[in-house]
Predict the structure.
Amino acid sequence: MSISEIFARFGEPAFREGEERVIRRLLEGPPIVLAVGGGAFMNPRTRALCRARAVSLWLRCALPTLIARVAGRTHRPLLAGGDPAAVLARLMAERHPVYAEADLIVDGDDASVEETMEKVLAALDAYTPPARVPVGLAHASYEVLIGAGLLDRAGAHLAPVLPQKRAIIVTDAEVGPLYAARLRAALEETGFSVAEERVAGGEESKSLATYADLAERILARGIERRTTIIALGGGVIGDLAGFVAATLLRGLPFVQIPTTLLAQVDSSVGGKTGINSRHGKNLIGAFHQPRMVLADTSLLETLPLRERRAGYAEIVKAALIGDADFFAWCEANGAEVIAGGAAAVEAIRRAVEFKAEVVAADEREENPDGGRALLNLGHTFGHAIEAECGYRDVLHGEAVAVGTGLAFLLSAELGLCPPEDAARVIGHLGAVGLPARLGDLHRPFSAEALIGHMRRDKKVRDGALTLILAEGIGKAVLRRDIPKDRVRALLIGEGARS
């Protein structure tokens, strides 16, 4: 039967079901170029097949072009019995936001097939699919996409995983002017209704006051439980927006679009959200997993060198916890990663894969033998340094780098790891321009004050000091009841006042 006969006898739904079966069979076979009609891509199951098994490309045309191409064609069921221009205009309004979910978009208004073909080939040659890292959890599995250009196709990536095409972008006064308009355009291209809320930049925004103000502003927009909160920014925005998403209406869908290297490899993955208290960092929070993470590596081009170095500290941390070979790779490629070369994508992918594996095994940090807590290598010292500095002047990644150096020095002094390993770690951090010793921060510290901050760490149990130390490179361990005097002696030996 012809398509028109199938429509007449069985209706469009029956035709679409058969169409889907044929497309599935073809995509399960050998490589092909498959041209499908516009109605096929409107089927969510067919779109899912295309995402999983193909590169989809939309030949986008203006209304006059489409009218000219269907003129005189009487065999198209959807154009029967109506004005072609009116019907096409209606179909475009319905379908174009869905067509925009294709991997590639090429304007197809050219006069000749050859001109369009050249544009298609150029688009395919330039296309590099993003790396996809699955985060497999019991109740909230998702993907981390890593690659260049993800921001400008955010709608295409997010539409399939979100329950509603309505979103609130949360960003700050520094990132918003750079990227918010591009993100809004990418979302609206696929039919999203988008609003935006901005907060001040910096660690000070992770406060109860900022959280309360932001929550009230978002609630005033009449959100629903399917409205998505999208965090566009670094770790501060991710933590703050994630906590807002976790708490408003008892939980809203959440997406991370991290714009710093540190956030791409660490804070955007794993579902930890929260704000700071006057008693310490991240003491008010919740576990709330995102629906997707878009780590657009091209956004790192605007980062200052100091910020890229700070982010690199978290990549090194991942290697030191459980992958000695990865640390050796970092020693060989660290400078290129920080410079933003091709090695950056590989480093981000490996760091995210490692964290995803740890998070999947211990989502809520409940493993008494370490588990997810091992990801805090360098952080107990680092958070103490940040708190003592008033969360100013020292970047989080810099504090973690110093904390990692201190953790390895203490491990060596306690006989857990060879002194050569501590020297190797500190040497690499210093070689890429990161501080690795307390004295590298060039400011006075009190050993007692730092220990006081460390005793308020979330890993403390029954008041005992708990630290992530190392039995060697790639062998992090959780140790409880670390003698306070040994920590004090280490800090004083590093130049802190008693």
Summary: The CA atoms of residues 235 and 267 lie 6 Å apart. The chain has a mean pLDDT of 94. The radius of gyration is 26 Å. The first strand starts at residue 57 and ends at 60.
